[in-house]
Amino acid sequence: MPKRLALAGGVFAILMACGWPAAATAADASVIVRQAIDGFVRPAYATLAEKAGEAKTGIEALCAAPSQEALDAVRKEFAGLIDAWSSVEIIRFGPITEDNRLERMLYWPDRKSIGLKQVQAALARKDQTAADSKTLAGKSVAMQGLGALEFVLYGTGAEALAGKDDPYRCAYAAAIAGNIKTISGAVAEAWAKPDGFAALWANPGPDNPVYRNGAEAITELVGVFINGLELVRDQRLKSFLGAAPDADKPKSAVFWRSGLTGAALGANLDGMDGLFQASHIADALNPDSRWIAESIHIQLANGAADGRAASGPIDEVLAHPARRAKLDHFALVTSSLSTLFGVRLSGEFGLSAGFSSLDGD
Q1: The pTM is what?
Q2: Euclidean distance between CA atoms 247 and 249, whole angstroms
Q3: What count of other Cβ atoms lies within 10 Å of the Cβ of residue 23?
Q4: SS3 breakdown of the chain: % helix, strand, coil, rounded to 5?
């Protein structure tokens, strides 16, 4: 069962804050959740599966006819895949948590470079079991996801992909892309099922094994934003952005080899804004509290713009004072958003942010 935010004032606090009658709690929560699922979750995972398929097709074409032009096309498709993933990775519950799919999609952080060493070893040994998506799926999670694919496409020796001297490297890339496509497709299919996890989330009730009431269903939704902001700020941004320039660690940033660090951060917030707007949760606020939703939308858009403005090689971004300032502003915006979601919005629904799903509790 997924972890939850602590409920303040009992299971019916959400309806008291919103002025809903007790009997309407589950029904009103169901409407909000269904809007979130149909308006964001399902289409976002469908887009991810589509982008993964495009990446796989592009890499296979590169393997068949290596050239710099084909490699450039593959890298462009990889950027689209990262954008799609970063938008939806804020959904860290449900089908993506089954079969280690979340870790298989992106093993990060890799603090001891365990995954990097495994990928490098496979390339050095030309491990044929890693060059087949079916057998790759049974290997270390660090060898089969976006981080591994990034190294193969951008890491040491990646220029060989434009020629015919290292067909194994391309075959390994194709296997990784195939694995990502399989995972993405399975998650998209699971969310699309009318009687699958989406039905559990959208139909809270006493007989529901996961969401026993409307408050728990809304709690899951609000938790996406609270935990997502912690992820992008405290894990992703602070992993490389120091308190001062001399404390920066550009090679600790996610997707630093491909220059997609800032773009990924921007897409993270774009995804949050997309989910927030699709859910129409703001409609449940009292009129005099609608400013909370307006502020959330504006700040999510501003934060996403900050991330995109910091796109490109992260070491160059950090060395440029004006561009580095965009990341400092990103940190301020996400901190403000944490207050808006964790205190203001949660307070309106009678919820309190009593835990973090990222802290191992």
Answers
A1: 0.92
A2: 7
A3: 8
A4: 70, 0, 30
Q: Which residue has the tokens 């895949």?
A: 81
Residue range 11-27, pLDDT digits in tens:
333 333 343 333 346 78
Closest CA to 191 of 46, 334, 68: 46
* Token pair listed for 74: 């593959």
What are the structure tokens assigned to 210, written together? 């996961």
Angle, CA 300 vertex, CA 295 and CA 305 arms, to 5°: 130
User: Spelled out in words, what is the top-level CATH class assigned to the domain 45-189?
Assistant: mainly alpha
Q: What does the alpha-carbon distance between residue 82 and residue 350 come to, in Å, rounded to a whole number?
A: 36
Phi, psi of 241, deg, nearest 5:
-90, 115
Rg for the chain, CA atoms, rounded? 21
Q: Which residue has the tokens 């075959």?
A: 171
What are 35-67's pLDDT values in tens digits?
Answer: 999 999 999 999 999 999 999 999 999 999 999
Distance between CA 14 and CA 349 in Å, rounded?
4
Contact 42, 191 (CB under 8 A): yes
Contacts 24+ apart (CB under 8 A), 163-170: 163/66, 164/66, 167/63, 168/123, 168/126, 168/131, 169/123, 170/59, 170/62, 170/63, 170/66
Helices (H), 203-320: 214-230, 261-279, 290-309, 314-319
Which residues, given as ranges, of the chain have pLDDT below 50? 1-24, 354-357, 359-361
Cα 96 from Cα 264, distance rounded (Å): 19
3-state secondary structure 307-335: HHHCCCCHHHHHHCHHHHHHHHHHHHHHH
DSSP state of 354: -
Count of CB atoms situated within 10 Å of the CB of 4:
17
- Cis peptide before 21, with omega less than 30 degrees from 0? no
Dihedral Cα 315, 319, 320, 322, nearest 10 deg: 100
Q: How far is CA 351 from the centre of its chain?
A: 24
For the chain, domain boundaries: 6-40+195-352, 45-189
- In the three-class reduction of DSSP (H, G, I as helix; E, B as strand; rest coil), residue 93 is classed as coil
